[in-house]
Amino acid sequence: MDQTLVLEERVGAVAILKLNRPDVMNSFNFAMLRELRDRVEKLHWDREARVVVITGAGEKAFCAGADLKERATLGEDQVRQFIYTIRNLFTFIELMNKPVIGAVNGVALGGGTELALACDIRIASENATMGLTETRLAIIPGAGGTQRLPRLVGRGKAKELIFTGRRVDAKEALEIGLVNKVATAEKLIDACLEMAAMICEAGPIAIGQAKYAINYGLEVDLHSGLAIESNAYWVTIPTEDRLEGLTAFREKRKPLYKGK
Question: Which is catalytic among the residues 65, 102, 110, 114?
Fold first, then answer.
């Protein structure tokens, strides 16, 4: 029987995706990339799923990057195809219409850190290790790391980490803004679910539009960004959820948002 390479679990409106190759530290081969792509594409259109959490199976690793044993068997064109596939997958995760939380439960190197960077929010376990180590293999980060890391931690720190291939522990990752929060290994998923629960209290259309405005607004000048924000706001005005929020506030109760 073929192994399921990406496990899925639902906790209320939260979909938890678990990379499932713990014997090789959840490193990416072509098959796992394609399975993760299929999962997130389905979740993008799933109205019942409000937040996605991505983590790794086992206790040692979130994702150790590309499967180097498979990489050694690939020709140049196949390597290009792999990079094309993983880059497009991570971009889809970054831009999908609902928040994605990366639960970094251990080692996250190369493509593992790049996957975490594509998530909207990163929560790391105390034993997490992160780093873009590609230059030590005479290549560079190819799944968005050279672009997302400097936008997150600044140009100078990103160059330091990429040029040296240095790994950082959870404490340093928090200090430089690479992760949002650190939790014990035992409480990592609980911490992600707690944050997800707070997100789920907000209007899903509003969350999607806020993510859109932030992602696209950061790539343009302030004037254009404000225009993007305005257009995203206009989307929320005719929704049932907006009226429900006002009614709930007036009636002093929690709103019941339906994503309509």
Answer: 114
201 annotated active-site? no
CB 206, CB 137: distance < 8 Å: no
Q: Which of 66, 108, 118, 170 is catalytic?
A: 66
CA atoms of 107 and 128, how far apart (whole Å) = 5
Residue 196 bears catalytic tag: no
The model's pLDDT over 118-157, given as tens digits with 9 standing for 90+, comes to 999 999 999 999 999 999 999 999 999 999 999 999 999 9
The pTM score is: 0.93
Tokens found for residue 87: 């880059």
Helix residue spans in the chain (DSSP H): 30-44, 68-71, 76-95, 111-118, 145-153, 155-164, 170-175, 188-200, 204-217, 222-236, 240-251
Question: With b meaning 16 or more CB within 10 Å and e meaning fewer, what string describes 197-206?
Answer: eebbebbbbb
Q: What does the domain layout of the chain look like in residue ranges?
A: 6-200, 204-251
Task: Specify the CATH number of the domain 6-200.
Answer: 3.90.226.10
Number of H helices, E strands in the chain: 11, 10
Class of domain 204-251: mainly alpha
The active-site residue out of 110, 111, 112, 144 is 111
